Amino acid sequence: MLVAVVPALALQLQAARSERQRLLRDARETAHTRALLVAEQQQRAVDGIHGLLLAISRMAEVRARSPACNASLAPLLEAAPAYANVGAVLPSGQVFCTAFPAARPTNLGDRAFMRRAIETGRFASGGYTVSRLRGVLTMPFGQPVWGDRGELAAVAFASLDLAALQRQLEGLPLPPGVTVAVMDREGVQLAVRPAAQGQAGTPFDPALLARLAARTDPLDLAGPDGVERIYASAPVATSVGELAMRVVVGVPSADIYGHVNEAVRRNLLALGLVSLLALGGAVLAGEHLLVRRIRALIAAAGRIARGDEGARSGLRAGEDELGQLVRAFDGMAESLQALARQREQLEEQLRQGQKMKALGQLAGGVAHDFNNLLTAILACGRFLQERLPPGAPGRDDADAIVAAGERAAALTRQLLALARRQRLAPRFITLADAVRSLEQMLARVLGEEIEVVVEVRAPGPVEADPAQLELLLLNLALNARDAMPGGGRLTLTVDERDGGRSGGPGLPAGPLSALSVRDTGGGIAPEVMEHLFEPFFTTKPPGKGTGLGLATVYGFVTQSGGTIQARSAPGQGTEFVALFPRRAPALAASPAAPAKAASTRGSETVLLVEDDDAVRGIARRALKRAGYQVLDAASPSAALAASRGHPGPIALLVSDVLLPERNGWELSRTLVAERDGLRVLFMSGYAGDRLDGTQLLPPGVPLVPKPFTAEELLARVRAAIDGR
Q1: Per-residue pLDDT at 420
Q2: Is the pTM of this model over 0.85?
């Protein structure tokens, strides 16, 4: 009897307890949701006032402190009845502009919103007050108005009509017994529902308000009227983060548990009767229905424990509880097998990731040193081209040097791409537009024997580097062309998918944009598929491929937060699917007028810091030829000495990122602190990261990537000095 009844009784009591907790959670969520709803309404009103005051602060009549602005502001009160008044005051507090006609001169210099707006120099809120212009209850806000020379010309103000706020609260569809209080930053009530709970202008219970302000979750306690309620609080802040209002909602808790207690009593009575009947049936059926089947489950569990992941119970899974247990057990065994297969896949991905990490370290080191050499080679080659006119002896050699240097620079960029260390310039684009823009070019590149088909099933918005995306399409298309020597069809498909909350093996989570490139070639053998994205792996004959194309594609996709999959079988073609996190496209900006080419010459003083003698010599030579005064240094200590020993102004610091003693970013912070107005331009061979991948430069700082030409350096220098 105890074995049968006590657990059931405990479950019933636990269920009742859980139900009480659930109802309490629901009541707390309801209170919190309603507090957020009311706070959101007030937040919109505060944000609307801020936007209105910003517009008023830019009015010419207001900035000129002209009373003519009265006529411009008067229609606002008719259009927005929630406002008690709108206008502007002088810094002394004297009102010179008001939408509501002023019967006599009025000074608002002692108002809290006025003092705070002048002290902070930004949008500020006041508190509960009586309007001196209209004589109604209001809550004012202020926004400084700056003159043409940056001086404080006036303070624009707007006041919420608290009567309108009270009517808004009265119109909310709330259940009986729910209380709502909207108060200012000092805890003075602006509007209260129902009115019996308090009135505007009186302070909210300070002790209750202090406890609510110290918590982010609802609070159960007795209110000022002694009624137990669940209280929730929500702040209303200005756009500058200043608390403007606070909303407190109280939900009565008296009737939450009544029906639960009644249900518990009924269930306990029914449980006693059912338990007596169940005991007799359990004695008769226990051996046949339970013990035999449980022993089978125990035996199967033992086989799994000994390593037999394919063990099954062998029992029929009925609809009873034990049948569900049998089904769950067999499902667990199947999951173990699936997990074992997934573990093998993850181990393979880990090995691939370790390879890419090692390659990334190698690529970073190669890029740093190799790009320094390429900078000197390309710059000297172009200097030779400038001195040698076409047809002159040695001009062909100079052209060959520059061409070879550019190919080497492209190879370095490929290494950085496949190692996911390239410097990307992502922006919002759609895969559909990218594919359509390249359709004709791909058709010309692939030839007449290959038909290019574009299927757009969804826009596919992503945030990616358009140039790298074009390179991805070109690489995959050229591989497809090589797989179809006799001609065929190349299908480009843009679609959207859902990766779910956690994605899948190797998949990003959330909504995805998919780009598929499918050919009708001979397919790829299974033993080749395993090495498809490995750097320098190629099935092409010597001289026909470097093995970097697919590795570069893989590096770009993963660096953009996505993944790429390949499906193929001999004789059935190949499909590559690149999956990117789906991003909402940004609004297109209106096209700007083309800017005139800016001069790259100047006469300012530039401090050049580069530890590589050849690169430093090239940069110094280019800067001096353009008219700049150059102070050069091979180390941070030498740069600091040169700066401190130079009596005149220094317009720009041009520094390498990786330097002996300290890095370029740390050097720039020291020099900027010593020289006010000093601008900075960095040079780097691999996006300014350490070899372990940690950033040396914050995002968005001016950077000229190596290798660079003299023209590129001078353009970046001029732009940095001019603040462009």
Answers
A1: 47
A2: no
